[in-house]
From TrEMBL, chain A:
Keyword Lipid metabolism: no
Highest taxon listed in the record's lineage: Bacteria
Gene3D superfamilies: 3.40.50.920, 3.40.50.970, Pyruvate-ferredoxin oxidoreductase, PFOR, domain III
Domain Pyruvate:ferredoxin oxidoreductase core: 525-592
PANTHER family in UniProt: 2-OXOGLUTARATE OXIDOREDUCTASE SUBUNIT KORA (PTHR32154:SF20), PYRUVATE-FLAVODOXIN OXIDOREDUCTASE-RELATED (PTHR32154)
Matches recorded under NCBIfam families: OAFO_sf (TIGR03710)
Location of the Pyruvate flavodoxin/ferredoxin oxidoreductase pyrimidine binding domain: 269-449
Keyword Zinc: no
Name of the protein this chain belongs to: 2-oxoacid:acceptor oxidoreductase subunit alpha
Source organism per UniProt: Alteraurantiacibacter lauratis
Chain residue ranges for the region called Disordered: 628-658
Automatic annotation (TrEMBL), chain B:
CDD domains in the record: TPP_OGFOR
Presence of the UniProt keyword Acetylation in the record: no
Species annotation: Alteraurantiacibacter lauratis
Assigned keywords, A-Z: Oxidoreductase
Pfam family, one: TPP_enzyme_C
Thiamine pyrophosphate enzyme TPP-binding domain sequence ranges: 55-201
Leader sequence residues: none
Protein name stated in the entry: 2-oxoacid:ferredoxin oxidoreductase subunit beta
Keyword Oxidoreductase (UniProt): yes
Amino acid sequence: MATQMAEPAVSATQDTAPDSVVVRFAGDSGDGMQLTGGQFTLSTALAGNDLATFPDFPAEIRAPQGTLFGVSAFQINFGSREISTAGDAPDVLVAMNPAALKVNVGALKPGGLIIADSGEFTKRNLEKAKYDTNPLEDGSLAQWNVLAFDISALTIEAVKPFGLGNKDALRCKNMWTLGLALWMFDRDRQPLIDWLNTKFKTKPDIAAANIAALNAGHAYGETAELSGPLKKLHIDPVPAAPGLYRTITGAESVSLGLVAGAQLAGLEMFFGGYPITPASSILHYLVRLKEFGVTTFQAEDEIAAICAAIGASYAGSLGVTSSSGPGIALKTEAMGLAIMTELPLVIVNSQRGGPSTGLPTKTEQSDLYQAVYGRNGDAPMPVIAARSPSDAFDCAIEACRIAVEYMTPVMLLTDGYIANAAEPWKVPDPETFEPFKVKFLEEKNAGDTLLPYKRDEKGARPWIKPGTPGLMHRIGGIEKKVDTGNIDYSPENHQAMTDARKAKIDNIAVPDQQVTLGEASGALAVVGWGSTYGPIRRAVDNARKKGLAVSHIHVRHIHPLPANLGDLLRRFDHVLMPEMNTGQFKTVIRDQLLVDAVSLTKTSGQPFQIAELDAAIAKFFDGIADNEGGDVPANRQQLPTPESGHDDGSLKAGGDAQ
Amino acid sequence: MNEMTRIETTLKDWETDQEVRWCPGCGDYAILKAVQRTLPQLGADPKNTVFVSGIGCSSRFPYYMETYGFHTIHGRAPAFATGIKLANPALDVWLVTGDGDGLSIGGNHMMHVLRRNVNMQIMLFNNEIYGLTKGQYSPTSRIGTKSPSTPIGSVDRPANPCAFALGVGARFVARGFDVSKNLPDVLKAAHAHQGAAFIEIFQNCIVYNKDVFNDFAAPKGAEDRQLWLADGEPMLFAGGTKGIALDRDLLELKVVDVTDGDWQSAGVLVHNVKNRSIAHMLVELPFGPFPMALGVIYDDPRPTFEEAVADERARASEGKVPSLAKLLAKGQTWTVAEKARAGEGHPA
């Protein structure tokens, strides 16, 4: 079992502070766990710890209260060293009800700490969670430290002076819990108090009640006669490069990168979108940035969203669309038109588990084939993949650059994990960005003649804005004649245009592949792409500390690949490729580079755990032939895996899970 | 259309050097000529004019117009055109589609471009057949249409394009047919309308659905079978001997005889292009008992989508100086000082 290889649990009772701690907040969907986690994240960032988070919530908007499939969880890993994943097994589990305990307790490290709201462990709630007896009393939690107290009652007591009804009072439970957590990790409450005052500006009573709950939770830790496991821990700040920092999620970072990209290109941005989990947050973010020359359009469907974006590119804006797997499938035909008409376009794919509706709120990397190969005809398109929330910013700028410099659609791959997760980000200075200002064609480019498909040294055709005098021309999806762009079905012309489209993409200038960690040759290269960056880096680091000749190579440019990648990989005895799919990038690598790469696959909707990668790397050094690669089975001890429910991911009411 | 400076052009200025590749005798030729004849009269500017089309015979139209042109994918032209108008509202956009492109595969987008009221002229060439794919029945084919995919006759009920357009909220609905001398006037009215202007143009597919509209479009006896509507004019046909009146008990239209030109006492309705209820009745008139209602059936403008989007953007941007540096540094931030440990900074 992977977790057996995990580091020993950090006991909250130890006197010396650990260098990292994993905390998971779990409760009912209505308990405000994502908000609690988000605010805890902010306070962690403000304390100067490095961190990574993993929000995990059900596909239903309002699953029945207290049920196993209604459990929502938020995990944060933070520490005084560099943090690259949301952590394997939690050290601390905050369980707001029996269902939250049941779904999550298996993941807790032996010796870890459970904080439970005993007030919620009623007969009714125990039944809903399918407990025959109360786990807080029947000894079944013996391998962990349990701190159970009636958070519900304590919260009601704390907010009494504000005259709230029971229901409203109980809504402050999450703030009470957060207060306790802030005490436990020696955090400043003031930023949260400021935040609550701003959030409830128009409802000062609610703000005051929440603050009272927060303070009460904190005071409980400070003064209550807590013996045993609960003890204050101070995690030292990480030494970080000087500068201004903020926390950022992938959705924010993609949006900001797109805005920056459009500005560097000197263009207005047009974003066409259609609501889909987990991509909608990009639309929500961009719609607030109108003053940056951003027009957003919520279209009638995925197809209209991309078509409108292509129309906007045709008219001289930077067209952008975003979606997730099923929506990307719908956009496919339009991508072919953008390839044929050679118009710039950025397509962001926040991947989720598939096929079909699949796992709307879970993460996967299974759209790589769709991105690289998934169109009719020979339809080459550049593909780049972000490795983390903050990296998505640079990737979005890179996607914009390639799109306008090469007159092509570009696909940017992120995933549900990157979109939702948050990490600290050193705010970059826009002055340091390299502009790539677009020059539209202003006059005929071949003497008295206009040649809309005359190519430049990069193989790109000119971008011609409708409204420009004397440059009227027609484009479309039918094969076009070399240079003139007129309709031409002739055999030699189609051959020439197919070759030209392919050459243009093949020759895109991609930076040489660097080794992310380790030497440029050795026994084993672990090659990853996308959001597996964090766990792979950590696992390779672990292996190297054991003296193993392992290197980490993380690929951003999926298509075309960096020109030196083949040579680089051939300097290793073995190549291991962990992917959250059945081995898609491995197939591309084997095909294009003739490298004998081996897959490590995981398709349970969960990110890789470091321990799983530790184990996979170890196999290459165990002296047993053919004991490499394989797949990682679904791991019930990892993030919450509901035991029933959301069979189709369908919506209950007006939310954003579809 | 848009507010614009009048440009002097002739029909020749709107013709491309491309060989027109419709079947000889196709109704599309007549529509092409009508458009090329109308644009100079409108004072339109080729450089600001964009023809956008989907897929099908009609959708080859942009290649033959000396303007900017975008021949897109099947059914999606309204979405492309919406993006074009939002990116540059100054462009004068004409959308060319057919009964299959616009009402079958693209029915969804047609609905939304009309209800959003994006400012453009939408010409739907209705030939009641799939021409380019060799003659299958279409969503406007009449019941019993024999075709390669319905050898013993189609059984599904046809869509009525103008009724569809009105139903989804169109603010301009008109009808014409390919060889009609009145088509340019219909196009001019559509161009003058601010907003999505929907024009159904009956078009004769001489190969797969020859003369299917002859019952009302044939020159002989046309007077009795065509009701040409004009705002403020009585709804008369058959040389003024018949008219359309409202049966006030049944709340439906009826044909009445007009004697000695006294249409008033016959109760003939005066066409009011802003009357939405009567417009619904006119587009639904069953041909046979009634003549075919043609011309501008409904024309009552509302603010356009692209204006609303631009206004909203202007309002949201008012007083804001866009600074990328400030945007990136937004939210709760902290500073790590030189040679200091993190965490010593303060929330900004």
